[in-house]
Specification:
The chain has 879 residues and is α+β, with helices and mostly antiparallel strands. 35% of the residues lie in helices and 19% in strands. Strands 12, 13, 14, 15, 16, 17 and 20 form a seven-stranded mixed beta sheet that branches. A four-stranded parallel beta sheet has the order 2-1-28-29, covered by helices on one side. Strands 6-5-9-21 form a four-stranded antiparallel beta sheet. Helix 18 (611-618) packs across helix 19 (620-630) and helix 19 packs across helix 22 (728-747). The chain is globular and about 110 Å long. It binds one RNA strand of 89 nucleotides through helix 7, strand 13, strand 17, helix 11 and strand 31.
RNA sequence: GCCGGGGUGGCGGAAUCGGCAGACGCACGGGACUUAAAAUCCCGGGUCCUGAAAGGGGCGUGUGGGUUCAAGUCCCACCCUCGGCACCA
C-alpha cells in the first residue's frame, strides 16, 4: 500500500463528507479535548502522542454512536514570541501566526480528526476580547482587584510571576532565581474559591445525562470527577488547607503607645502554654514601628535589610534559621507573662498573619531557633504515660497537656478546641482556616498578551473600560520589545494615553497585560460557540456540550492550568453562564516522549523527532501504531525507531491477508517484498513450504473455524474494554494475537472465504482508531462503502464468549471439545495439567487428578492433608 | 523532610477479582527461500543443576519478614528510582 497516497485520499474523503464536523444538536454528546498548543515552531512528537491519543478516543466514540465535539486551537500569547521578535526582528504576531500555519498543516497531514471550523487563536482580538469581558465581570464582583504586595519578580523575564510559575524558587520559563518585590498588581481572587476547589475534587456532582454509565446506559448521574488520584492530591497539597486558630498577643506597651495586637495563626492552640517567644517576618509592616527608638534599632534594621535582599532560595535552603531580638515583649493571653519578640527569617510574610508563636518544645523549626539563640524550651505536651525529659528534638505528636494551667491533663486534640473556645470568650482568638493557595497574580509587564481593560484616571481612580468598547486592542506599532521592568505598552502613547470613560479627562490605560493562563482557563468554553460576537459563548450551547467528557494532556499543568480552569469555570457558573461546576469530567495524563537514552527532547540537544519525518519515512498509521504499542499511554515513552519496523510489518501482514482473502482466485499467498510493490513474479507464485499463508478456502464445504470465531469475539471485547481504559498497547497486542490466529487457522485450511472476510471486517473496525487511513483502505477493498467511521463499532456476541478471559487458542480448542485444562499443583507449585470434561463434579476431578501418573509418583508415600479445587481453574494438593 | 507513582527476561511491557509469571512486540541466535542480499516464512530462548539425548529437578517479579492451600498481586519493615511540594506555623 502506498501510504502517502492512502493518507491523502482518506483525509480528502473525511473532509468532503464532513465526517468530523460537530453536529449542531447533539443527542448523545461526547466532548473530547486535548490541551491546545503553544505555537513555537512546528509540533513535535510529544504533541503527536497527545493528539493521537485524543484522536483514537474520538474515533472510537464516534463509532459508538456519540455526537463528537473534538476541536483544536492555539495558546498564542506568551513570552517566546517576544523573544523571537527581539532576536529575529519580526513582529510577535507574524512569528506566532507563521508557526500556527506550519503546525496546523502538519496536524492536518497526520489526519487528526479535529473540527477545524472551531479553531481558536488566543492572540486575535475576537478571542482576547472575551478575556477582557471575563475580567470585567470579575472586577464587578470584586473577584479582580489591584493590590500592592510582595510578589515574585523574575529578573530574567523582567516581569512578575504567579506562585504557580515559580518552581523551586526559579522562574518556570527562564530558570532565573525569583526575587520578591513590592508592586501594585492585579489579582484574581481564587482564594475565595479555595474551599470549593478542594471539596469538588471528591464531591459527587450532578452531570448531564449523556455521560455514559459503565453498564452502557445513559442515565443522569452524580459522581465525583474522574481525575487521576495524584493530580487530585497535588491540587489538595497546593490548596493546602489547615484548620487552626487565630490567637492575639498584645504588645507590652506603656501609656505613650496605642494598644497593639500581634495576631498569630496556629494549628496547635494546645501548645499555647509552651510559647517562649514570638517571631515576626522581616518584611512585616509592624516591625518598623516596634523597634523605633529601641536600643538595638540599628542592628535590627540591618538584619531586616540583609534578609529581605536574600533570594527566597538561600533564605529557605538549609535548616539554618536566623533572627534578632527586637527588645520588645508581648503578653501571654492567659498568663500575662512577658514573651520576647524576635524577627526571624523563617517566618513567611505571605502566610497566615506573618507572625508566629514560638513553641520550641513542639515545633522543630522553633526548636532549632531556640537552641541557636538560647531561648527557653518549655514542655507542655507529653506522650501518653511518660514523664518529662529534656528534648533532643521537638515533640510534634499529640499527647497529654501539662504545665498548661486549667487545661493540664487534657488530651491535646480536645485541648485545641477548649483553648480557642476560652480565648474566644476573652476576645483574644477564634477558630480559623488558612490555605497555602494565594490569589492569582495576573498582571505581566510584557507586550504580547491581553491588555487589561482598565483606565486609571487622576480624578475618578480605577475605571473599567465599558463593555461596549471592548476589545481593547493590543497596538501593533511597537518599537521595542526588550523588557525593562515595566510594560512596553507605556511607551505607546496612542494606546497609553486615553480619555476617562467617566469624566472624559485625560487618563492612562493600565499598561500591563494578562498572564497567558487566563487565556487557557476558559478556552474549552469558546469551542462550543467559537464565532459568537456577542458573548464569549452562548450559555445554551455550553450547556449542550459541557463538561468536557475526556480531557487529555500532560501532567505539568496539574497545579497551574488545571486549577485555574476549574476556578474560572466555577466563576462563570456562579455568574449564570454555564451549568457545570467543573470543566472536565475525566482527565487523562499522558507520559512524556523522551529519546532513546531517556533524555528530554529539545532543540538545543538536537534530538527532537518531528512527526513530519515519521510521516515521510513510515507513514502516519505505522507511526501511530508504533507509538501506541511502545508503552502504556500514561507512562513516559523512550522513542526508539526500531519499534516502528514491527508496526510496519504488522500492517503489511494484515494487508497481505486481505489480498489473499480477496483475490479472485485465492490459490496462494504472495510474499510481499515491500509495502509499495505488490506484483507477484512467476517465481513468487509458487507455493513454498512454510513461505506463505495458504489461501482461505473458497470451497463452501469448509466449515467456519470455531476457534477463530471465539477468538474474534473475545478480541472485540478486549479491544473495546482496553480503549475504554486507555490501554492502547494491550488492545493492539490483542489484535496481533487475532491476526496470528487468523493466519494460523487459514494455513491449516480451516477457514472458509466468508469467515476470513468477516474476520477482516471486524478487524478493520477494531484497528480503525489506531490506524485510520489504513483501515479505511482495507474497508474499501472489502467492498464496503466509505467511510468506516460512519459504520458502527462491533459488539461481541455474548454467546461466543468464554467465561474465562483472557484465552489462548489452545484454551479455546479444549473448550470446544467440552473440556477444560486445569492446573494441578502440589503445595502451590505447578506440577501437571489435567484436561477434563467441563462439567465434572469436584469428587470426580479429585479422583482423576490422583490418577495422573506424574502426580501419583510425586505424592507417593506422602500423606494428603487437603485438596483444594477451584472450579475451571486449578487443583492444589497439600501434602 | 512530607506526599504520590514505580521497581517483572537483553529491551518495551502483559498478567483488569489472590489462582499456569514473562501475553504481544523489539533486539538476538539458528534454519528455509535466494547466485547473493533485502523482504518473507519456520524454529528457539528467565535461570541454575542433572542427563549423550528425550527428559527430570531446583530457584525465580528490588531486599527481608508475614498472612494464605496458593502472593508480581494483600500486610509490615527496608533499599533504590522517578515526579510533586518544600521553613505554610
Amino acid at each position: 500500500m502506498n501510504y502517502q497516497e492512502t493518507e491523502k485520499k482518506w483525509q480528502k474523503v473525511w473532509e468532503e463528507k464532513k465526517i468530523f464536523s460537530t453536529p449542531s444538536n447533539p443527542k448523545k454528546k461526547y466532548y473530547v479535548l486535548e490541551m491546545f498548543a503553544y505555537p513555537s515552531g512546528d509540533i513535535h512528537i510529544g504533541h503527536f502522542r497527545n493528539y493521537t491519543i485524543g484522536d483514537a478516543v474520538a474515533r472510537f466514540k464516534k463509532k459508538q454512536g456519540y455526537d463528537i465535539l473534538h476541536p483544536f486551537g492555539w495558546d498564542a500569547f506568551g513570552l517566546p514570541a517576544e523573544e523571537a521578535a527581539i532576536k529575529r526582528k519580526i513582529h510577535p504576531r507574524e512569528w506566532t501566526l507563521n508557526n500556527i500555519s506550519v503546525s496546523r498543516s502538519t496536524l492536518k497531514q497526520v489526519g487528526i480528526s479535529y473540527d477545524w471550523d472551531r479553531e481558536i487563536i488566543t492572540c486575535l482580538p475576537d478571542y482576547y476580547h472575551w478575556n477582557q469581558w471575563i475580567f470585567l465581570k470579575m472586577f464587578e464582583k470584586g473577584l479582580a482587584y489591584q493590590a500592592k504586595s510582595l510578589v515574585n519578580w523574575c529578573p530574567g523575564c523582567k516581569t512578575v510571576l504567579a506562585n504557580e510559575q515559580v518552581q523551586e524558587g526559579s522562574c518556570w520559563r527562564c530558570h532565573e532565581q525569583v526575587s520578591k518585590k513590592e508592586l501594585l498588581q492585579w489579582f484574581l481572587k481564587i482564594t475565595d474559591y479555595a474551599e470549593r476547589l478542594l471539596n469538588d475534587l471528591d464531591k459527587p456532582l450532578k452531570w448531564k445525562e449523556t455521560i455514559r454509565q459503565p453498564d452502557g446506559s445513559d442515565k443522569p448521574m452524580e459522581k465525583p470527577i474522574e481525575w487521576p488520584e495524584h493530580v487530585k492530591t497535588m491540587q489538595k497539597n497546593w490548596i493546602g488547607r489547615s484548620e487552626g486558630g487565630k490567637i492575639i498577643f498584645k504588645l507590652d506597651t506603656d501609656e505613650t503607645e496605642p494598644v497593639t495586637e500581634l495576631p498569630v495563626f496556629t494549628t496547635r492552640p494546645d501548645t499555647l502554654f509552651g510559647v517562649t517567644f514570638i517571631s515576626i517576618a522581616p518584611e512585616h509592616p509592624l516591625t518598623q514601628r516596634l523597634i523605633k527608638k529601641q536600643p538595638q534599632e540599628k542592628e535590627v534594621l540591618d538584619f531586616i535589610k540583609k534578609t529581605v535582599l536574600q533570594s527566597e532560595m538561600t533564605r529557605t535552603a538549609a535548616g539554618e534559621k536566623n533572627g534578632i531580638f527586637t527588645g520588645r515583649y508581648a503578653l501571654h493571653p492567659f498568663t500575662g507573662e512577658k514573651i520576647p519578640i524576635w524577627i526571624a527569617d523563617y517566618v513567611l510574610a505571605g502566610y497566615g498573619t506573618g507572625i508566629v508563636m514560638g513553641v520550641p518544645a513542639h515545633d522543630q523549626r522553633d526548636f532549632l531557633f531556640a537552641k541557636k539563640y538560647g531561648l527557653t524550651i518549655k514542655i507542655v505536651i507529653l506522650p501518653q504515660n511518660q514523664t518529662s525529659e529534656p528534648l533532643t528534638q521537638a515533640y510534634e505528636e499529640p499527647g497529654i497537656m501539662v504545665n498548661s494551667g486549667e487545661f493540664s491533663g487534657l488530651e491535646s486534640e480536645r485541648g485545641k478546641k477548649k483553648i480557642i473556645e476560652k480565648l474566644k470568650e476573652k476576645n483574644l482568638g477564634d477558630f480559623e482556616i488558612k490555605y497555602k493557595l494565594r490569589d492569582w497574580l495576573i498582571s505581566r509587564q510584557r507586550y504580547w498578551g491581553t491588555p487589561i481593560p482598565i483606565i486609571h484616571c487622576p480624578s475618578c481612580g480605577t475605571v473599567p473600560v465599558p463593555e461596549s468598547e471592548l476589545p481593547v486592542k493590543l497596538p501593533d506599532n511597537i518599537q521595542d520589545f526588550i523588557p525593562k521592568g515595566r510594560s512596553p505598552l507605556e511607551d505607546v502613547k496612542e494606546f497609553f494615553i486615553t480619555a476617562c470613560p467617566k469624566c472624559g479627562k485625560q487618563a492612562n490605560r493600565d499598561p500591563d497585560t494578562m498572564d497567558t493562563f487566563v487565556d487557557s482557563s476558559w478556552y474549552f468554553l469558546r469551542y462550543v460557540d467559537s464565532k459568537n460576537e456577542k458573548l464569549p459563548f452562548d450559555p445554551e450551547k455550553a450547556n449542550q456540550w459541557m463538561p468536557v467528557d475526556q480531557y487529555i494532556g500532560g501532567l505539568e499543568h496539574a497545579t497551574g492550568h488545571l486549577l485555574y480552569c476549574r476556578f474560572i469555570t466555577k466563576v462563570l457558573h456562579d455568574l449564570g453562564y454555564v451549568n457545570v461546576e467543573e470543566p472536565a469530567f475525566r482527565l487523562f495524563n499522558h507520559g512524556m516522549v523522551l529519546d532513546k537514552q531517556g533524555e528530554v527532547m529539545s532543540k538545543s540537544k538536537g534530538n527532537v523527532v518531528s512527526p513530519a519525518y515519521l510521516m515521510e519515512k513510515f507513514g502516519v498509521d505505522a507511526s501511530r501504531i508504533a507509538m501506541f504499542f511502545a508503552a502504556p499511554a500514561e507512562k513516559e515513552l523512550l522513542w526508539n525507531e526500531e519499534g516502528v519496523g514491527g508496526a510496519v510489518r504488522f500492517l503489511n501482514r494484515i494487508e497481505r491477508y486481505a489480498e489473499n482473502a480477496l483475490s479472485d482466485s485465492p490459490q496462494i499467498a504472495i510474499p510481499v517484498t515491500s509495502s509499495n510493490t505488490l506484483k507477484p513474479s512467476p517465481q513468487q507464485v509458487k507455493v513454498m513450504e512454510g513461505t506463505a499463508i495458504d489461501p482461505p478456502a473458497a470451497d463452501s464445504s469448509v466449515h467456519d473455524s470455531p476457534v477463530l470465531t471465539i477468538k474474534l469475539h473475545a478480541t472485540i471485547k478486549k479491544v473495546s474494554d482496553d480503549l475504554e481504559r486507555f490501554s492502547f498497547h494491550t488492545a493492539i497486542a490483542a489484535l496481533m494475537e487475532l491476526l496470528n490466529l487468523m493466519e494460523e487457522e487459514t494455513k491449516q485450511g480451516g477457514v472458509p472465504l466468508s469467515q476470513a472476510k468477516h474476520c477482516l471486517e471486524i478487524f478493520t473496525h477494531l484497528l480503525s482508531p489506531f490506524a485510520p487511513h489504513f483501515s479505511e483502505e482495507i474497508w474499501e477493498k472489502l467492498g464496503k462503502p466509505p467511510s468506516l467511521f460512519e459504520s458502527p463499532w462491533p459488539t461481541p456476541d455474548e454467546k461466543a464468549l468464554l467465561s474465562t478471559q483472557p484465552i489462548t487458542a489452545d484454551q479455546i480448542r479444549s473448550a470446544l471439545k467440552g473440556e477444560i485444562e486445569l492446573v494441578v499443583q502440589i503445595n502451590g507449585k505447578v506440577k501437571e495439567h489435567l484436561t477434563a470434561p467441563m462439567n465434572l463434579t469436584e469428587e470426580e476431578i479429585k479422583t482423576k487428578t490422583l490418577e495422573l501418573p506424574k502426580i501419583k509418583a510425586q505424592i507417593d508415600g506422602k500423606e494428603i492433608k487437603k485438596m483444594i479445587v477451584i472450579p475451571k481453574k486449578l487443583i492444589n494438593i497439600v501434602v
